[in-house]
Amino acid sequence: MKPATERRPPDAAASVRTSPSLALVKYWGKKRGGRNLPATTSLAVTLAGLDTRTLVRVAAPDEGDAVRVGGELQDTARYAPFFDEARRLFRSPLRFAASSENSFPSSAGLASSSSGFAALALGCAALSGLGDGPDTDALASEAARLGSASASRAVYGGFTLLPAGARRAEPLEGPEYWPDFRVVVALATRDKKSESSRGAMELTRTGSPYYAPWVRDARKVSREALAAFRDRDAQKLGDLMRLSYLRMHASALAAEPPVLYWLPASVTLIRACAALRARGIGAWETMDAGPQVKVFCLAPELAAVEAALREASPACELIVTKPGPGPDLRRGQEIGAGAGSEGR
Question: Is residue 6 a part of any domain in this protein?
């Protein structure tokens, strides 16, 4: 494996498979005066089986940067800060064109921006001639943060940490660290959410009297959650996960105008998890900026959790996942194109 400081001959294209990063303890809000720096620390897990596949190529001399997601051309202004930062960090004059497809609903509260910008960052790094290695991953994490702070975590597999105010995420442990760790994703809807995470965070920061207390409280919750993770204490981690998402959403709901992502199905699923815990079954839910409910449990109780969620909300689609590996990058051809591709 080549060190990141060594330049390779440039490739014309790169294909990257990534998975979204689910925050077990939430990042919500940005540091004032920073460039998309998180106000709170997040502890996260990469979700296996939810895939973003992105093909990145060097744009023609007369082309500008362009991104398509699901065939739809994206707003250039949304991606401009990322591309400018990527060129600076990767010391590259290139312009890039990317096409991305998700195996799960986009812009619906399933962290598609985390996997999308992580794939884009890794692809641009490869086309800029950077070799594989931890130094390149760190630079890609920093560039991805300009597109989506959670994307800095999705550059890595397994479990990750994005400290408050950090420019890049830190890999904690690989997916094998906690073999029984499971997440059931319950889709309350496949529709796109009405308010972007970035916009909702700013509304919360500027319009909620609970935003400053949320940031202060999050410091303690993240410290205790990291200790519980290190101990593999599912009960303690699950309880802190619930505190984190409930207090995050409470701060958003108290904004003027209020931010409310929950749907009736979301509440039904939350109550189903409470009923499971009352029966002594470990099922700890969390929610991001969207209506989807993600339930952490251990493998021995997975069947009971799935059954209870299906009974509570039969119309909701369930996706069972676990800690996933890091991204898969192939230079010069698409993933799955056959022998001769170079994986990272």
Answer: no
Token representation of residue 5: 């400081």
Helices 211-230 and 234-253, axial angle in degrees (round to 10)? 170
Q: Where are the beta strands (DSSP E) in 70-197?
A: 72-73, 96-102, 159-162, 170-173, 181-187
Instruction: Reduce the DSSP state of residue 137 to 3 states and report it.
Output: helix
Instruction: Note whether 118 and 142 are within 8 A (CB).
Output: no
Q: Which domain holds residue 45?
A: 13-174+326-331
**CATH code where residue 133 lies:** 3.30.230.10
- CATH at residue 187: 3.30.70.890
Over residues 38-58, the mean pLDDT reads: 96
Tens digit of each residue's pLDDT (9 = 90 or more) over 232-248: 999 999 999 999 999 99
333 pLDDT tier (thresholds 50, 70, 90)? low
Looking at residue 337, its pLDDT comes to: 37
Residue 338: pLDDT above 60? no
Asked if 56 and 161 sit in the same domain, the reply is yes
List, in order, residues 6 or more apart from 1 with CB less than 8 Å away: 131, 132, 133
Q: Clarify whether residues 188 and 65 are in a common domain.
A: no
Question: Same domain, yes or no, for 163 and 259?
Answer: no
E strand spans, the chain:
13-18, 21-25, 42-46, 52-58, 66-69, 72-73, 96-102, 159-162, 170-173, 181-187, 284-286, 293-298, 317-321, 328-331
343 is a domain residue: no
Residue 342, C-beta contacts closer than 8 angstroms, at least 6 positions apart: 330, 331, 332
Residue 2: pLDDT above 80? no
Note whether 272 and 309 are within 8 A (CB). yes
| Domain identity same for 124 and 200 | no
CA distance 175 to 167: 23
Q: What is the pLDDT of residue 194?
A: 77
Q: What is the value of pTM for the model shown?
A: 0.92
Which residues, 6+ apart, have CB-to-CB distance to 30 below 8 Å? 36, 37, 38, 39, 149, 201, 202, 205
**With contact defined as beta carbons under 8 Å apart, do 238 and 296 qualify?**
yes
User: How many distinct helices (H) and strands (E) make up the chain?
Assistant: 9, 14
